């Protein structure tokens, strides 16, 4: 990092823009979720306010802002108010460390500066995201304990037990990716996924032109495990036991309303965005466009425009995954709690271990034959 | 310069939070102070150019171990202990605090007075010696046996924990 | 002592590490709640970790960080077993004050 004022300015603008991007996606996702669930359940959903009900979001925002400020009498004030804030932080921090597009260069005062298209760049990006999102359990525990309500507490304890259990499967399913790409750095992983599918088999270089060089072709099992574990980590259906409304009223956020509730929503959708971003980064090439990216690269170079186009590609993939999250929530029934724990500890963990060992063996075999 | 400021911020944070763990009569507040202390120590690791160790510290301690503590405290609804945090009688309390203070003063002042003699500067400040690649190279060569034994330990620990804390007769037993 | 306040050296980190260790030690010696005692042990382990990484950094030796990883793993295991024991104790006696367990008679 240089000390130039221009660099500092651009980096600050970048951080703000990415944070705002994340926050602004939330109302749209809420709208998609409500309309999508209505579509799936053969109803209309919110369609009265504005075209397609799009301005429903504004009405909701006003409603959230002007609701009565309420705190249960026996609650612990510090924890009650800290919980929504803590819920927001991990998602925002983790989303900031994912590269959203190709790096770009800008010229200013005769010098060229190069910037990453992410809030901040870390060499140990994967560990950072895992570490930060593991702190998300505190928000739930704060909310559960702070609101002095037994349903809240039960929801919170369920939620954090679930998050801890699935963190193991989540982390282990990523080891395969680490073994193949040999880096903790998101940018390097995305760089390695450019171009057509190619690998060395029995000493021969094999290139499959019609497939992109994406992680899912190397790690299909890892992808399935990671995909399932992210559902549990984000506390979404079919793993939404913590807020099972039939048993626990609304789980850990039973006692919350207004802006505090909204912050929990932003935290949840932020987690979903981080999960989709990670899925796209590890298994679907990040901002890599499988066809025609060379033409774009030649015509635009590493300009800001090229980065924006690649950013659109990335966001398209992320939005597709977000739609899958919503789709799954409204079509699959909820697990029972013992089934959830069985799935995490007795099914996903052994398969993740198997995936790790199998990947290690294959990597060693292919590398030794290739050389 | 930023390193000096960061050092004082994180050192102050972790020491303040550690004192909170020691002094707070409510175990839940102790746990919360412990989280802050862990994050402060992780920040010191970052300051020492060991970001991977710091992140593992956050991942394992703040993300798993302390959540376990919080679980246990919350499930048992441990009451605030009031004046009986340290002991029952006033005299016993006084004696304990006196001797504890003497012991800690002995350790801390011996470090403080001798600090000039071992206040080294880094021999090789710019080298990224705590790079993940270097760490794993040492971990999987020099410490291979220890690593294997640790794996065995981590297999034994869950079995032991489940055996210790299971309810005889299944989940519906009284 | 004060002249060296603006250049951070090995001594400063060791002082922080020693202070954390002392606070943990006092917690183990003085506190009555078993869970808080376990937490104080974690604090002491952390202080030792800090000392390891500090020495590793200042003497350009990677072993310090590697040992720290081992300590973290073992501390996690220790906390799990310790908490399982505490859960068992609490289930049997409804009590967490260690004064209650002084005599160790069934």
Describe this structure in words.
The complex is a heterotrimer of chains A (371), B (174) and C (106). Chain A is mainly α and 371 residues long. Chain A has helices at residues 5-40, 56-66, 77-96, 125-134, 136-146, 150-181, 186-192, 220-233, 245-248, 258-283, 293-300, 304-331, 337-370; strands at 104-108, 111-115, 196-201, 204-212. In chain A, strands 1-2 form a two-stranded antiparallel sheet. A two-stranded antiparallel sheet of chain A has the order 3-4. In chain A, a hairpin with a 2-residue loop joins strand 3 and strand 4. The model of chain A has no long low-confidence stretch (mean pLDDT 80). With 174 residues, chain B is mainly α. Chain B is globular. Chain C is 73% helix and 0% strand. The radius of gyration of chain C is 18 Å and the shape is elongated. Chain C is an all-alpha fold. The interface between B and C is large, with 79 and 71 residues.
Output the keywords.
heterotrimer; B: mainly alpha; 74% helix; globular; C: 106 residues; elongated
What's the layout of helices and strands?
The complex is a heterotrimer of chains A (371), B (174) and C (106).
Chain A: H1 5-40, H2 56-66, H3 77-96, E1 104-108, E2 111-115, H4 125-134, H5 136-146, H6 150-181, H7 186-192, E3 196-201, E4 204-212, H8 220-233, H9 245-248, H10 258-283, H11 293-300, H12 304-331, H13 337-370
Antiparallel strand pairs in A: 1-2, 3-4
Helix pairs in contact in A: 1-10, 1-12, 2-10, 3-4, 3-5, 3-10, 5-6, 6-8, 6-13, 8-10, 8-13, 10-12
Chain B: H1 2-23, H2 27-47, H3 51-76, H4 90-113, H5 115-118, H6 132-141, H7 144-165
Helix pairs in contact in B: 1-2, 2-3
Chain C: H1 10-30, H2 34-58, H3 63-93
Helix pairs in contact in C: 1-2, 2-3
Low-confidence stretches of chain B: none
Q: Return Rg of chain A in Å.
A: 22 Å
Q: What low-confidence regions of chain A span 5 or more consecutive residues with pLDDT below 50?
A: none
**What's the arrangement of strands in the largest beta sheet of chain A?**
1-2
Task: Give the CA-based shape of chain B.
Answer: globular
* Proportion of helical residues of chain A: 55-70%
**How far from one another are the termini of chain A?**
38 Å
Instruction: Give me the secondary-structure category of chain B.
Output: mainly alpha
Helix vs. strand class of chain A:
mainly alpha
**Count of distinct strands of chain B:** 0
Please count the beta strands of chain A (DSSP E, at least 2 residues each).
4
Fraction in beta strands of chain A: 5-15%
Radius of gyration of chain B: 21 Å
| Rounded mean pLDDT score of chain B | 81
Q: What is the overall shape of chain A?
A: globular
| Helix fraction of chain B by DSSP (H/I, runs of at least 4) | over 70%
- Largest sheet report of chain B: none
Multimerization status: heterotrimer
Strand proportion of chain B: under 5%
Give helix and strand order of chain A, one letter per element, not per position.
HHHEEHHHHEEHHHHHH
Count of DSSP helices of chain B?
7
């Amino acid at each position: 990092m240089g000390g130039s004022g221009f660099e500092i300015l651009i980096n600050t603008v970048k951080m703000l823009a990415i944070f705002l991007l994340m926050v602004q996606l939330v109302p749209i996702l809420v709208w998609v979720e409500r309309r999508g669930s209505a579509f799936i359940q053969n109803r209309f959903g919110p369609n009265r306010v504005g075209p397609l009900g799009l301005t429903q979001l504004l009405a909701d925002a006003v409603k959230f802002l002007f609701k009565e400020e309420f705190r249960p009498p026996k609650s612990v004030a510090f924890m009650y108010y800290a919980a929504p804030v803590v819920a927001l932080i991990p998602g925002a921090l983790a989303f900031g460390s994912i590269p959203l597009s190709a790096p770009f260069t800008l010229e200013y005062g005769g010098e060229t500066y190069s910037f990453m298209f992410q809030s901040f760049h870390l060499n140990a990006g994967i560990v950072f995201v895992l570490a930060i999102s593991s702190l998300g359990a505190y928000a739930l525990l704060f909310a559960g304990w702070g609101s002095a309500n037994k349903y809240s507490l039960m929801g919170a304890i369920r939620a954090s037990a679930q998050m801890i259990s699935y963190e193991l499967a989540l982390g282990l399913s990523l080891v395969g990716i680490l073994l193949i790409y040999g880096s903790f750095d998101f940018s390097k992983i995305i760089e390695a996924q450019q171009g057509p599918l190619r690998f060395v088999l029995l000493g021969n270089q094999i290139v499959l032109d019609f497939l992109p060089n994406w992680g899912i072709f190397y790690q299909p099992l890892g992808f399935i495990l990671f995909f399932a574990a992210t559902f549990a980590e984000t506390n979404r259906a079919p793993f939404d036991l913590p807020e099972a409304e039939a048993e626990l009223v609304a789980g850990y956020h039973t006692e919350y309303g207004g802006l505090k509730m909204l912050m929990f929503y932003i935290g949840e959708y932020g987690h979903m965005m981080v999960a989709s971003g990670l899925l796209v980064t590890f298994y679907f090439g990040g901002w890599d466009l499988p066809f025609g990216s060379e033409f774009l690269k030649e015509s635009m170079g590493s300009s800001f425009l090229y980065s924006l186009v690649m950013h659109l590609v990335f966001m398209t993939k992320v939005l597709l995954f977000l739609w899958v999250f919503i789709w799954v929530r409204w079509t699959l029934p909820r697990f029972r709690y013992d089934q959830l724990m069985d799935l995490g500890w007795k099914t996903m963990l052994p398969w993740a271990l198997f995936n790790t060992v199998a990947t290690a063996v294959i990597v060693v075999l292919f590398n030794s034959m290739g050389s | 310069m930023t390193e000096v400021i960061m050092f004082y911020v994180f050192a102050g944070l972790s020491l303040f939070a550690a004192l909170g763990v020691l002094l707070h009569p409510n175990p839940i507040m102790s746990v919360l102070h412990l989280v802050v202390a862990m994050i402060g120590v992780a920040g010191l690791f970052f300051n020492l150019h060991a970001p991977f160790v710091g992140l593992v510290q956050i991942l394992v301690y703040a993300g798993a171990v302390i959540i376990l503590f919080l679980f246990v405290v919350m499930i048992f609804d441990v009451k605030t202990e009031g004046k009986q945090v340290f002991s029952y009688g006033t005299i016993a309390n006084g004696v304990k605090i006196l001797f504890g203070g003497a012991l800690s003063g002995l350790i801390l002042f011996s470090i403080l007075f001798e600090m000039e003699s071992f206040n080294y500067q880094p021999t090789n400040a710019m080298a990224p010696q705590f790079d993940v690649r270097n760490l794993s190279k040492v971990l999987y060569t020099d410490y291979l046996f220890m690593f294997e034994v640790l794996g065995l330990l981590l297999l034994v620990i869950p079995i032991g924990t489940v055996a210790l804390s299971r309810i005889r007769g299944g989940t519906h037993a009284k | 002592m004060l002249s060296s306040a603006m250049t951070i050296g090995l001594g400063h980190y060791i002082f922080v590490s020693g202070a954390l260790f002392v606070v943990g030690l006092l917690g183990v010696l003085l506190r009555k709640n078993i869970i808080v005692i376990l937490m104080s042990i974690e604090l002491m382990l952390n202080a030792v970790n800090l000392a390891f990484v500090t020495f590793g950094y200042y003497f350009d030796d990677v072993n310090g960080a590697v040992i720290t990883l081992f300590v973290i793993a073992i501390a996690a295991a220790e906390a799990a077993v310790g908490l399982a024991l505490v859960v068992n104790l609490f289930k049997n006696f409804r009590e967490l004050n260690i004064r209650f367990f002084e005599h160790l008679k069934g």
